[in-house]
Specification:
The chain has 3 helices and no strands. By secondary structure, it is mainly alpha-helical.
């Protein structure tokens, strides 16, 4: 019996990992914004977290993706002053 592995499985897993890391960084950025961090400090903190999590330099997201997350959060969240709620229960 030979196991048959889907040749597309690696691409699927890579995209799922990237989506997971992107979501985690978005949540961290929203938390830092709610704590009063500036855009520059938030970006620096997220970059330092990535460097700590991936010390060998093989990060799942590049600097452009990190910049896009921070820009989107601070430009869209600036109008309301808060990041949008992602959990159960919504805003109260």
């Amino acid at each position: 019996m030979d196991p048959r592995r889907n040749p597309e499985r690696g691409k699927i897993e890579k995209s799922r990992r990237e989506a997971m890391y992107r979501g985690e960084l978005e949540e961290r950025a929203a938390l830092l914004q709610r704590l009063g961090y500036t855009k520059d400090k938030t970006r620096a903190r997220l970059a330092a977290n990535l460097a700590c999590d991936f010390p060998n330099g093989t990060r799942p997201l590049d600097d452009a993706a990190l910049d896009a997350i921070v820009e989107r959060l601070f430009n869209n969240g600036a109008a309301s002053g808060r990041a949008t709620s992602r959990g159960k229960g919504g805003n109260r």
